[in-house]
Specification:
about 35% helix, about 250 residues, alpha/beta, six-stranded mixed sheet, Rossmann fold
Length: about 250
């Protein structure tokens, strides 16, 4: 723990954060991996220079990235131009998702030749390759998201739908599971409702995809368990409580 606390201190992070149970468990697990991909999906408007507000789930991802150092790559999904899923799994003429004809023919964007998504194929400005390339090169990926209206936020949902070709290739097309040796995680931050259930659901989703889903990488923080607490006071107290719980400065 001495080394971890030193790293936190050097990065202007409260060293007591190392004593957080969830953090300890997650970091200990990820430190055993060679390449870790951290995907953040919660957004804020960046135009208000006074607040400089960073989503709480993104703060956690940034802390983990700093602790893991060169092992970790962080990609902010909200900054990418990712087109919506085209729904090719359930077309009138059948399932056409992830077929070889959908392979993106671009050596720079698709060096492995594994990216087979019609939305990437049909839209030249689509940036899913900025996720799929590091994902295929990593041995662990952790998704960070916010809970909105009892579900994952829109950026995460768009992303996971756009990655369906990875799941479809082995479940429907009978090809190799490209994710079989990779572990995944989902860390959620919410205010007052359904966080645990969302994490449980996403863990099952990731199992369907073919990931290994260790318990150490699936957890949720929520300010209150009262779903009817929508007071301004509650929302104002959530961020200080978050900082207190995770020993952040």
């Amino acid at each position: 723990m001495i080394k971890l606390k030193k790293i936190l201190k050097e990065n202007n992070l409260h060293e007591a954060f190392a004593d957080s149970t969830e953090f300890q468990t997650t970091i200990s697990y990820l430190k055993s991996k060679n390449k870790v991909l951290l995907l953040t999906t919660s957004n804020r408007w960046e135009g208000d220079a006074k607040t400089g507000d960073v989503p709480k789930s993104t703060i956690l991802a940034q802390v983990i990235q700093k602790v893991l150092g060169d092992k970790a790559t962080l990609v902010d999904i909200t900054k990418l131009n990712i087109f919506p899923c085209e729904g090719n799994v359930s077309k009138r003429d059948g399932n056409n998702c992830g077929v070889k004809a959908a392979m993106l023919k671009d050596k720079e964007k698709n060096p492995s030749g594994e990216l087979r998504c019609w939305a990437s194929f049909n839209n030249k400005t689509d940036e899913l390759y900025k996720v799929s390339n590091p994902l295929l090169e990593s041995d662990a990926v952790v998704f960070f998201g916010s809970i909105r209206w009892g579900q994952t936020n829109g950026f995460y949902q768009k992303l996971i739908e756009r990655l369906t070709w990875l799941e479809n290739r082995h479940t429907t097309l009978g090809e190799e599971n490209l994710l079989k040796d990779k572990v995944s995680g989902f860390i959620a931050i919410g205010q007052n409702w359904n966080g645990q259930e969302v994490v449980k659901t996403q863990k099952q989703v990731h199992k369907f995809f073919g990931f290994q889903t260790p318990d150490e990488l699936y957890w949720n923080w929520q300010y209150t368990t009262n779903p009817k607490d929508e007071t301004l006071e509650s929302y104002k107290k959530a961020y200080p409580k978050f900082k207190q719980d995770f020993k952040l400065k």
